[in-house]
């Protein structure tokens, strides 16, 4: 309701309108909001500002994404999922991590699959040649999803390879985020469309009533070729990731090449995103044929987002930390987790587990660094060791427990990634890979952060950092 109308209406009418607005919104909040703090905040806003509060809640407070996802799920075929459940590569575990494997199976409805070969790749210099070679060798299909896909030098090389693949009859689908790859102008989207390559922008709209989608981003990085070779991790497609070329603002990262049955789960995740964005359902063996594996890694894809996968990556991490006996090591570019993850890390340290959190000395988003500084003191109190990584800015997202279990992918350890973004991780039960990742993190423990470092900040700096912390869910 326009704000200038209310003062001109009779007092009784205004009172009735306000009562109806507050009551209606409050009832909806009580029935749909699980987070108590969020519910109290929205109800308080509507009580103090009935008209404005109602408009804000209708725009930003209702999870229409989850409602849309449920609608799409109900109309989608399920035969491929049944085939995955019946795969001959499915595995069960015994020992320390058996409870975790069982929990994630129930949580994700995806089985653990064996026979995978997983290779760790660092930076664009190490990963892009493998990705471009895979596209060059594509025979049937290419599925590509990237949060950031720039129309720069390396982006142009990817586009050129994708166009060449399509010309030789390969089915190509490219999905880019509606924010990360350019909101007002997306050079890569225009370039792909000009070449006739099927491309979509995830949840992008210039319409005011769809503005809440600005806060929900597809942060996944996926490349699947012929459902035989897959790539996933934290690496975007941009010149800034080519460290050896010394870009102005270099970004170091870690990516993974996958071969084996787990690639099919990666393809399924990408196909769901494509369907969510375009309502085109990808079907057939060209997209989802399960290939035999020659490796020894046991792995599973774990997706999370504000749709039907709410908080599943966080639940997986929480359970893994609970089972830790000796070590928990995490490396993340942005460290702003919610109270659950902070408490679990602190409790692990208090029971004698060596907990290391490894973060950049300086990230590419200063407000995130400010909020992190104000949020980290309780961990230091519990005995968690926090380490700073020297430049270049490291964008890797890694977690290893007891040098036996690993969780890698696109998800940062912040509230946005764990709750709002569409993310994709992979859990692996592979001692060799866990050791490689653990050693990589150990090499990046450049300086230990202490209480003294936090205390010596200027008073104004502490106030700034504390204020930034209030915006944690939106940073």
TrEMBL record:
Q: Which key words are in the record?
A: Cell membrane, Lipid biosynthesis, Lipid metabolism, Membrane, Phospholipid biosynthesis, Phospholipid metabolism, Repeat, Secreted, Transferase, Transmembrane, Transmembrane helix
**Annotated GO CC locations:** extracellular region; plasma membrane
Q: Domain PLD phosphodiesterase, which positions? A: 214-241, 390-417
Broad class of where this protein is predominantly found = membrane
Membrane-crossing segments per the record: 12-32, 39-60
**Which lineage?**
Bacteria, Pseudomonadati, Pseudomonadota, Alphaproteobacteria, Acetobacterales
Q: Which Gene3D superfamilies match?
A: Endonuclease Chain A
Query: In the UniProt record, what gene is named as encoding this protein?
Result: cls
Q: Which GO terms describe its molecular function?
A: cardiolipin synthase activity
Q: Name one GO biological process term.
A: cardiolipin biosynthetic process
Enzyme Commission no = 2.7.8.-
Q: How would you describe this protein's topology in the membrane? A: Multi-pass membrane protein
State the CDD domains in the record: PLDc_CLS_unchar2_1
Name this polypeptide is given: Cardiolipin synthase
The keyword Transmembrane helix is annotated on this UniProt entry = yes
Task: Note whether Repeat occurs among the keywords.
Answer: yes
């Amino acid at each position: 309701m326009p704000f200038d109308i209310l003062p001109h209406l009779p007092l009784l009418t205004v009172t009735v309108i306000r009562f109806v607005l507050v009551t209606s919104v409050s009832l909806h909040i009580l029935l749909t909001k699980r987070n108590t703090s969020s519910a109290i905040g929205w109800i308080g806003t509507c009580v103090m500002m009935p008209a404005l509060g109602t408009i804000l809640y209708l725009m930003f407070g209702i999870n229409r994404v989850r409602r849309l996802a449920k609608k799409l799920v109900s109309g989608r075929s399920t035969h491929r999922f049944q085939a995955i459940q019946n795969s001959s590569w499915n595995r069960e575990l015994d020992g320390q991590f058996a409870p975790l494997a069982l929990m994630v199976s129930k949580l994700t409805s995806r089985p653990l699959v064996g026979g995978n070969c997983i290779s760790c790749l660092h930076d664009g210099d190490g990963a892009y040649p493998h990705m471009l070679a895979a596209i060059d060798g594509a025979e049937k299909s290419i599925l590509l999803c990237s949060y950031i896909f720039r129309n720069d030098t390396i982006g142009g090389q990817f586009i050129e390879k994708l166009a060449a693949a399509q010309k030789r009859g390969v089915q190509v689908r490219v999905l880019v985020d509606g924010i990360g790859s350019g909101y007002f102008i997306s050079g890569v989207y225009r370039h792909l469309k000009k070449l006739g390559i099927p491309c979509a922008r995830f949840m992008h709209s210039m319409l005011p009533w769809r503005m809440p989608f600005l806060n929900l981003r597809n942060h996944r990085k996926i490349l699947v070729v012929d459902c035989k070779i897959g790539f996933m991790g934290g690496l975007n497609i941009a010149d800034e990731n080519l460290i050896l070329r010394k870009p102005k603002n270099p970004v170091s990262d870690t990516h993974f090449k996958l071969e084996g049955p787990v690639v099919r789960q990666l393809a399924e995740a990408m196909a769901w995103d494509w369907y969510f964005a375009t309502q085109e359902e990808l079907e057939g063996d060209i997209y989802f044929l399960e290939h035999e594996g020659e490796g020894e890694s046991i792995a599973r894809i774990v997706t999370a987002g504000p749709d039907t996968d709410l908080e599943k990556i966080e639940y997986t991490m929480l359970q893994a930390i609970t089972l830790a006996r000796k070590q928990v090591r995490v490396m993340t570019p942005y460290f702003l987790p919610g109270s659950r993850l902070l408490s679990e890390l602190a409790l692990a340290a208090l029971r004698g587990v060596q907990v290391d959190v490894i973060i950049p000395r300086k990230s590419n988003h200063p407000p995130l660094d400010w909020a992190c500084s104000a949020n980290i003191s309780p961990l230091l109190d519990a005995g968690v060791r926090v380490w700073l990584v020297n430049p270049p800015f490291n964008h890797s997202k890694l977690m290893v427990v007891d040098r036996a279990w690993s969780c890698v992918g696109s998800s940062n350890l912040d509230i946005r990634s764990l709750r709002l973004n569409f993310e994709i991780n992979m859990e692996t039960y592979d001692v060799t890979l866990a050791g490689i990742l653990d050693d990589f993190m150990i090499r990046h423990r450049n300086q230990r952060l202490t209480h003294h470092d936090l205390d010596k900040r200027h008073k104004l700096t502490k106030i700034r950092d504390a204020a930034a912390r209030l915006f944690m869910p939106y940073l």
